[in-house]
Amino acid sequence: MTICLPWPSKDLSPNARVHYRTKAAATKAYREQAYWLTRERFPFIHQFPSDGPIRLRFDFHPPDKRKRDLDNMLASCKAAIDGIADALEVNDQRFGFWLSREAPVKGGKIIVSIMP
């Protein structure tokens, strides 16, 4: 069970120095995008048990060959994680993460595998 997310806006980076309204708009847009991509992929939200961990594997395919920290890439996806939790109607405290840096692709993408 996978979802393919677009690469997050640079405004969502923890190192970005942007106006709070700019960041809020980018956060809202990315959260909604993750929500709808998840709902499209998982139309029946009650596929997951009501308790226990849910593992998320993030395969990061950056848009270029610049070096990036995995923890910053995950932090940039905070809005997407919240959107996924909203779509699955679960508390995001149940999520456990597995992170992987993969080969760059044009435009960048993040493949999220969801495993109950």
Provide an overview of this structure.
The structure is a single chain. This protein is an alpha+beta fold and 116 residues long. 34% of the residues lie in helices and 23% in strands. The protein has 3 helices and 4 strands, in the order βαβααββ. Strands 1-4-2-3 form a 4-stranded mixed sheet, covered by helices on one side. Helix 1 (20-41) packs across helix 3 (78-88). The protein is globular. The mean pLDDT is 93.
How much helix is in the residues?
A: 25-40%
Structural class: alpha+beta
Helix count? 3
Radius of gyration: 14 Å
Q: State the total count of DSSP E strands.
A: 4
Specify the overall morphology.
globular
| Topology as a string of helices (H) and strands (E) | EHEHHEE
Output the strand order for the largest sheet.
1-4-2-3
The oligomeric status of these chains comes to single chain
Strand content range: 15-25%
Biggest pleated-sheet summary? 4 strands, mixed
What is the average of the pLDDT values?
A: 93
Query: What distance lies between the first and last C-alpha atoms, to the nearest angstrom?
Result: 10 Å
Short synopsis of the structure:
This protein is α+β, with helices and mostly antiparallel strands and 116 residues long. Helix content is 34%, strand content 23%.
